[in-house]
Write a structure and sequence with these properties.
With about 450 residues, the chain is mainly beta. It has helices spanning about 1-30, 415-450, and strands at about 40-45, 50, 60, 65-70, 80, 85-90, 95-100, 105, 115, 120, 125-135, 140-145, 150-155, 160-165, 190-195, 200-215, 220-230, 235-245, 250-255, 280-285, 300, 325-330, 335-340, 345-350, 355-365, 365, 375-380, 380-385, 390-395, 405, 410. The protein has three domains: about 1-75 and about 410-450, no CATH class; about 80-155 and about 335-410, no CATH class; about 160-330, Flagellar hook protein FlgE (Tick-borne Encephalitis virus Glycoprotein, domain 1). The protein contains two helices and 31 strands. Strands 7, 8, 11, 12, 13, 23, 24, 25, 26 and 29 form a ten-stranded antiparallel beta sheet that branches. Strands 15, 16, 17, 18, 19 and 20 form a six-stranded antiparallel beta sheet that branches. It is rod-shaped, with a radius of gyration of 40 Å.
Length: about 450
Amino acid sequence: MSILSSMYAGISGINANGAAISIIGNNIANVNTVGFKGSRAHFADVLTQSLSGASGRTQIGRGVILSDVSPTFSQGSFEVTSSGLDLGIEGDGFFLVRDNEESTYYTRAGQFSINSDGFVVNPEGYFLQGFQADTSGAVSGTIDDVDVSSTATPPNMTSGVVITANLDSRVSPIVTGFDEDDFSNTSHFSTAMTVYDSLGNGHLATVYFTKVYEDNAGGTGNYWQWNAVSDGLAGTDVMAMGYLQFDTGGALVADDVADMDINPTSPRPLDVPPFPGLPAVMSDFDFDGGVTQNQVITFDFGASLTDGGSGLDGVTQFGSNSSTFFQNQDGYSSGSLKSISINQDGIISGLYTNGQTRTLGQVVLGTFNNPHGLIKMGKNLYRESYDSGQPIIGSPSSGGRGRLLSNSLELSNVDLAEEFIKLITAQRGFQANSRVITTTDELLGELVNLKR
């Protein structure tokens, strides 16, 4: 009898709406799960039958089935955290993580930390995947576990010094030049900095400036001698020196004797005495402690006029007190890893105790042509499938992949209000289908009672 099919239709409705309630319950249960993506039920009617077998207008359905459960990959909101290893993806893409058996999974949950071996892992201990970087910080195309166990950076000996200062034009020249045995009385101004040898040891180097000549007759400006003094193998000694020429406007004309109007190292007419018998320029730092000898340090005093510069961006000579505005050198000691940071492109940078930063790698993301085809594996993990297609892997903020937000976690995209509405609808559907079964049972009882 066709009336019996109504009972089975009611049973299918109970099963389908019961499954929908389970899906809604799972969504609500994971409302606080980081990176969780809610799912929704899709119903479909069952193949129908025809009472007469001839006319489609007399077809009666046989109930409902749960045809599909699909995740919704809408963007979740973000929570700001205090950990730089908490990562959120703004846009499309999944983190790649790998277990000890070399199986790769995909996740939107960005709760990462560093394990005892220095690898970046998720709460389950799966290894975050990223592009590798060499010791110089160059990122390669090789994808492997993100390793930040490199806890030290080697030292870098100083090879260059930059000084920006003003030398007081009002001082009187010391024509005999600088005397390292009496530097306080044979210099007009000094500035000190720490330079580093090949083992990363710091050495205090003091640069003394001595005004040695005023060309009042020819109008070629003023000449200064500079000497870099530090402690080395021979004790306190001049390890670098040279000359600076300034024009009548205070700009740096030249810092190379070959480019100067007057050679400050040779005798000159008009009873002008020569400078001491030192070379025109010299740099030879010999520190003790078994380090590299004859260390050459280049001193940059700015772009001179003869070099095509303005002569005003480095050391100048104006009628005001001598003072240093800026100085820097490119050496540093060895350092240990202090902290790491990750930018929106996934670049992992390590900050070391010596103030240096180095690229340690780059987080990669994977996208899928059909993310709804991914297989849920639990623990916020997915596996690729035939339906999802293979992942398209690359760096964040490229190829349609989202950008990374450090110190952020993507929250569940479950909307409680929407879920409660769906729960009410599923509950009513469950109750209504139950009523269909009880009504059918009553009708069958009436049919049995016809014999009485």
